[in-house]
Automatic annotation (TrEMBL):
This is Crp/Fnr family transcriptional regulator. SUPFAM superfamilies: cAMP-binding domain-like (SSF51206), Winged helix' DNA-binding domain (SSF46785). GO terms for molecular function: DNA binding. Transmembrane segments: none annotated. Residues 154-219 form the HTH crp-type domain. GO terms for biological process: regulation of DNA-templated transcription. InterPro entries: cNMP-bd_dom (IPR000595), cNMP-bd_dom_sf (IPR018490), HTH_CRP (IPR012318), RmlC-like_jellyroll (IPR014710), WH_DNA-bd_sf (IPR036390). Residues 13-85 form the Cyclic nucleotide-binding domain. Keywords: DNA-binding, Transcription, Transcription regulation.
């Protein structure tokens, strides 16, 4: 596992930590790695979460299920991003949402207690790891705020435009590609897939946007 993790030095969580320090750090933290098949549950709502997940490859989705079994797609996270940190670092460890592998995934788990408490060896890279994690948690909160902004819009067209503008800003171009398929996008926007398809077609005819599959152009 150590040789595989050493290849992940470009991950934001490990920024500023030397490649040769990674195996020592991961051993000190008691980290472990797991691989998941598409659709497999990683953290289930109601279960305790004691470790922060770091996505080494693949995509993880955060979903919320109501009492009737209806699921709401909250967030999509890709390589290098964290998940589960809101529960593992809180006073209540029970997950309030579920996380599952949207595609085959490899995840590195870091026990949160060991992350925030410096070890007896006072590893020189430990404080840098904590700084990186705090910054990434802040970035994650921004993504959740973006989702709130989207779903607070009154019409489906407004939701679509806010989402597309967010993606354009994030990717730094009026032409961009999104990772969500139509069904996933409909779930993310809390909309019906057929209604989404109709609205996108209407917006294209009106010259507001253009698209080819998952590549969009804003005008």
């Amino acid at each position: 596992m150590e040789s595989e993790i050493c290849q992940q030095t470009m991950l934001p969580l490990f920024a500023g930590i030397r490649r040769e320090d990674l195996p020592v750090m991961l051993q000190c933290l008691g980290s472990f790695q797991k691989t998941y098949h598409k659709g497999e549950i990683i953290f289930l709502e109601g279960h305790e979460v004691r470790s922060v997940g770091v996505i080494l490859s693949g995509t993880v989705h955060m979903v919320k299920e109501d009492e009737e079994g209806n699921q709401t797609f909250l967030l999509s996270m890709d390589r290098g991003e964290l998940f589960g940190e809101s529960f593992s670092c809180g006073s209540h460890l029970d997950a309030r949402v579920s996380f599952f592998a949207a595609v085959p995934c490899t995840v590195l788990f870091l026990p949160f207690y060991k992350v925030i408490h410096a070890c007896k060896m006072t590893c020189r890279f430990h404080h840098r790891l904590i700084e990186n994690m705090v910054r990434m948690i802040g970035d994650k909160n921004v993504k959740l705020m973006n989702k709130i902004e989207i779903i607070s819009q009154k019409t489906l067209r407004e939701k679509i435009m806010v989402y597309l503008r967010q993606q354009a800003k994030e990717q730094g171009s009026s032409s961009f590609t999104i990772t969500l398929g139509r069904m996933e996008l409909a779930d993310y926007l809390c909309a019906d897939r057929s209604a989404l398809t109709r609205e996108l077609s209407s917006m294209k005819r009106e010259g507001l946007i253009d698209y080819q599959k998952n590549t969009f152009q804003l005008f």
